[in-house]
Amino acid sequence: MGQWNYIVAAYLATAVGLTGYWLSIKRRIRRREDLIRMAGRDKG
Amino acid sequence: MRSSRVRSILGIFAMLGVTAALYLGLIWAPPDAYQGQVQRIMYVHVPAAWVAYLAFFVVFVCSILFLWRGSQIFDQVAYASAEVGVVFTGLAILAGSIWGKPTWGVWWTWDARLTTTAILLLVYVGYLMLRSVVEDRFRGARYAAVLGIIGFIDIPIIHKSVEWWRTLHQAPSVMRPEGSTVAPPMLFTLLVSVAAFTVLYLYLLAQRLHLERLDAEILEKNREA
């Protein structure tokens, strides 16, 4: 395994980890906002 | 509306910073005289570890403030920062492991620095689990605050581990009383990467905090209903 393979693996693992985490927060925010919106509509 | 704008601005700065750090780390910085190209992993490994320290320091300070003042905002910031810190600790360990294979010949070894960092990860995974297990939200927050304060003790131990014990992990080369031993272009790249990761941390923290506020809003609405 060449040195660049390790570099690409480390950078890729970091990028995938951070993007995955960011998307998980985004998804959870969207779910909560939908819940609040639906609760508001039920009340109205 | 204002907090949404702050989050957007932080996101833009984080993206620009990470792009600059990628260019400097992968193209601009020279290879290391001893390790060669593989040393470029330092530009993700060290900033990730730095952000993990910072995130748990925020947990430590906010946990003390929460126990002292009882204000929910401190608890929300601590919880959000702990989750972000766990992600960065995991990534620091992962990048370090990938760096360890070509330089030490092993993916993992029970070296003092690595072991104390693994303990840190377990402590804060425990912190997150504790919050989801205890049903009474306020009680769970108090237990977690105590763990958040105690867990922080591990960070100075991690930092000093390379001096206190014989380790495979290298000694500090930037934060030394005698000054940095890192070549100026490498140090510049490292500092830009640390700054970019710090802004990224602030962005993720702001997003995660927004999620906490939405949770509190839902809880409040459920209580009213």
Folded structure, characterized:
- The complex is a heterodimer of chains A (44) and B (225).
- Chain A is mainly alpha-helical and 44 residues long.
- Chain A is built from one helix and no strands.
- Chain B is an all-alpha fold and 225 residues long.
- The longest helix of chain B is centred in the C-terminal third of the chain and has 41 residues, at 184-224.
- The interface between A and B is medium-sized, with 23 and 32 residues.
Overall number of strands of chain A: 0
Overall pLDDT metric of chain B: 93
Overall 3D shape of chain A: rod-shaped
Please name the two chains that share the biggest interface, counting residues whose Cβ lies under 8 Å from a Cβ on the partner chain. A-B, 23 and 32 residues
Structural classification of chain B: mainly alpha
Uncertain runs of chain B are none
| Structure classification of chain A | mainly alpha
- The CATH class name of chain B reads Mainly Alpha
Instruction: Quote the distance from N terminus to C terminus of chain B.
Output: 26 Å
> How big is the Rg of chain B?
19 Å
Q: How do the helices and strands line up, and which of them pair or pack?
A:
The complex is a heterodimer of chains A (44) and B (225).
Chain A: H1 3-43
Chain B: H1 2-28, H2 42-69, H3 72-104, H4 112-133, H5 137-151, H6 154-164, H7 184-224
Helix pairs in contact in B: 1-7, 2-3, 2-5, 2-7, 3-4, 3-7, 4-5, 4-6
Task: Please sum up the structure shown.
The complex is a heterodimer of chains A (44) and B (225). Chain A has one helix spanning 3-43.
